[in-house]
């Protein structure tokens, strides 16, 4: 797989028009307000903007998205990651898979943490799987991306700035793809592979991190084409 | 995350053989420590490593529970109400009377197997002779090897499973066997040249079964018979523990060579063990735990009452028995369990240590021990 092929999806991603909250074709009348499913956000609104809260109290509300909930253990990061990993809309199944990944990460880290003899060695381990996954994705996030711009019969890959949200999506995608990069049946091996890739990415190693460095290198070499962004 | 497939892990013949080969030696080196006089509900009783290997090293806890011990890096069992009830019953028992039968019943994941194994641990410390059947599924559904019996034509032998059961018995009772002087009550002829004479020690029968796997099934049947006789003669106090007893009363999956489904009566091991269900012997007790699968929403409402699980035939076999219900955790027990998980680093998410998070864990899982572990394992 060449570098150009592997970055193809970024191009598709960036050229796609941004999704705006639907107004014209929405089933909800315009007076309906967007929901605030999380309890902490509700409390924030009550404490900081009591007037706005008073307005919202008796206004009709749009139904909350069905993958939100008010649990203490709900995490938007995990939801985003499931959205990246899942196939054919089978989100519940893949949520279970991610839970197993988290369990195995914790099991592995705890075993190694117990085996470490000095406190300095122990300090290196991150035992909370969610924190580990977040840091791993943060390590993989690219600072800059490239896009294909055709100019005079030649296609240049031009460095572009990237939004934080997009960059996180790319990081998740790379980790998933690195785990996915083995022959069929991938579902049986995917869970341990994901565990391995997360721990690699947390320590700054592995395929996903290499992909980030490759992209940065490409952007650096093609710095001279940067003006094609607006010309 | 812990799928049901892993709960009922398929035991291949290879893994059985591996367990058989790797089982610990039966050296008597451990120093016995007595548990506290009055166990307190909700406290965790640690099992010593050498005793754990002797009692449950070959067979005992389910794979999920073994994994739990591995993750927590600690092997301990919580003292629950049914265990204390059992101890009270045993205290009041007159052992000159026919043996009492106890049936542990309750929802899936409520802790029936753990209670049974806790009693096995207690029995080991208090000098009982243990006959412990951890998974009858190995005999009834997926035996490692099937052979036609030579001594009793028409019956099926499972040599590898029988040898494993004998090894399990020998491991569990190594301390008891070294102290007691149990003798064989009659002459047994295994083949032309292999004979166990009357008055030889009972260990010879076990050793013969382990070394000559072809006769292992018969040896296990003889062992149970001899133990019954010894208990009747006040030579030992017997504790028979059987997990998943209701599996004996369902249709087995084992088949004859011609494709007929074998009945329980036709399997040497199962037939011999089912004789312990009756109370035609004294100086001992029988404790059985039921098995019910409620892991999926499709079978969430399957009845878990002993009448439904044991069926009419089982009910007749066990009647009269003492039912002991194993309930989900009480509020105090659930708190104790969560404290234990926090202490052993299983709970890592900061939200899970707040009062609100703990309440949520308890409420979502209905304080079911297994469900709570499943939920906590990824936090």
TrEMBL record, chain A:
Which keywords annotate this record?
Ribonucleoprotein, Ribosomal protein
Task: Write out the GO biological process terms.
Answer: translation
Gene3D superfamilies from the UniProt entry = Ribosomal protein S7 domain
What Gene Ontology cellular-component terms does the record carry?
ribonucleoprotein complex; ribosome
Q: Which residues form the Small ribosomal subunit protein uS7 domain?
A: 72-223
User: SUPFAM superfamilies, alphabetically?
Assistant: Ribosomal protein S7 (SSF47973)
Q: Which InterPro entries match?
A: Ribosomal_uS7, Ribosomal_uS7_dom, Ribosomal_uS7_dom_sf
What protein family does this chain belong to?
Belongs to the universal ribosomal protein uS7 family.
In Swiss-Prot or TrEMBL terms, this protein is called Small ribosomal subunit protein uS7 domain-containing protein
> Which organism was this protein described from?
Tetranychus urticae (Two-spotted spider mite)
From TrEMBL, chain B:
Give GO MF terms, alphabetically.
structural constituent of ribosome
Where does the protein end up?
Mitochondrion
Q: Which UniProt keywords apply?
A: Mitochondrion, Ribonucleoprotein, Ribosomal protein, Transit peptide
Coiled-coil annotated residue ranges, if any: none
Principal location listed in the UniProt entry: mitochondrion
Q: Which InterPro entries match?
A: Ribosomal_mS29, Ribosomal_mS29_met
Q: Which GO terms describe its biological process?
A: apoptotic process
Q: What is this protein called?
A: Small ribosomal subunit protein mS29
Gene this chain is encoded by:
107365333
């Amino acid at each position: 797989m060449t570098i150009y092929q592997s970055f193809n999806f970024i191009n598709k991603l960036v050229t796609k028009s941004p999704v705006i909250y639907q107004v014209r074709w929405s089933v909800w009348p315009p007076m309906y307000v967007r929901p605030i499913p999380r309890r902490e956000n509700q409390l924030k609104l009550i404490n900081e903007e009591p007037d706005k809260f008073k307005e919202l109290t008796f206004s009709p509300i749009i139904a909350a998205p069905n993958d939100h909930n008010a649990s203490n253990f709900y995490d938007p990061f995990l939801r985003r990651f499931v959205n990246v990993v899942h196939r054919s809309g089978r989100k519940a199944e893949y949520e279970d898979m991610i839970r197993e990944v988290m369990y195995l990460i914790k099991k592995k880290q705890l075993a190694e943490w117990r085996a470490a003899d000095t406190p300095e060695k122990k300090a290196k381990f991150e035992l909370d799987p969610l924190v580990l996954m977040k840091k791993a994705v943060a390590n993989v996030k690219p600072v800059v991306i490239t896009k294909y711009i055709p100019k005079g019969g030649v296609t240049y890959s031009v460095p572009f700035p990237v939004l934080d949200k997009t960059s996180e999506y790319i990081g998740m995608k790379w980790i998933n793809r690195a785990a996915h990069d083995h022959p069929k049946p991938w579902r049986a091996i995917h869970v341990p592979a994901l565990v391995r890739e997360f721990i690699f990415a947390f320590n700054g190693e592995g395929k996903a991190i290499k992909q980030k460095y490759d992209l940065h290198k490409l952007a650096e070499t093609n710095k001279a084409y940067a003006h094609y962004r607006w010309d | 995350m812990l799928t049901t497939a892993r709960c009922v892990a398929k035991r291949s013949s290879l893994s059985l053989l591996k367990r058989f080969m790797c089982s610990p030696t039966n050296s008597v080196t451990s120093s016995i420590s007595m548990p506290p006089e009055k166990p307190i509900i909700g406290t965790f009783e640690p099992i010593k490593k050498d005793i754990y290997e002797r009692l449950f090293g070959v067979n005992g806890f389910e794979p999920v529970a073994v994994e739990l011990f591995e993750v927590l890096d600690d092997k301990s069992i919580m003292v629950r109400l049914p265990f204390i009830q059992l101890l009270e019953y045993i205290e009041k028992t007159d052992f000159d009377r026919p043996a009492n039968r106890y049936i542990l019943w309750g929802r899936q994941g409520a802790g029936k197997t753990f209670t049974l194994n806790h009693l096995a641990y207690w029995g080991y410390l208090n000098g009982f002779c243990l006959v412990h059947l951890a998974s009858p599924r190995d005999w009834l559904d997926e035996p490692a090897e099937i052979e036609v019996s030579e001594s009793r034509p028409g019956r099926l032998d499972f040599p590898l499973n029988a040898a494993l059961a004998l090894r399990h018995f020998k491991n569990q009772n190594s301390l008891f066997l070294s102290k007691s002087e149990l003798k064989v009550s009659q002459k047994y002829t295994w083949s032309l040249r292999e004979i166990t004479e009357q008055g030889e020690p009972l260990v010879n029968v076990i050793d013969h079964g382990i070394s000559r796997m072809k006769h292992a099934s018969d040896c296990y049947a003889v062992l149970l018979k001899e133990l019954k006789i010894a208990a009747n003669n006040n030579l030992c106090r017997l504790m028979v523990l059987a997990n998943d007893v209701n599996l004996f009363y369902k249709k087995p999956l084992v088949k004859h060579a011609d494709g007929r489904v074998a009945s329980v009566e036709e399997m040497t091991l199962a037939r011999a063990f089912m004789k312990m269900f009756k109370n035609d012997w004294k100086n001992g007790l029988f404790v059985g735990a039921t098995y019910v699968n409620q892991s999926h929403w499709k079978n969430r409402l399957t009845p878990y009452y002993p009448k439904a699980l044991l069926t009419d035939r089982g009910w007749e076999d066990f009647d009269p028995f003492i039912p002991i219900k194993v309930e989900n955790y009480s509020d105090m027990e659930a708190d104790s369990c969560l404290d234990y998980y926090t202490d052993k680093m299983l709970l890592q998410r900061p939200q899970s240590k707040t009062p609100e998070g703990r309440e949520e864990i308890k409420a979502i899982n209905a304080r079911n021990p297994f469900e709570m572990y499943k939920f906590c394992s990824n936090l």
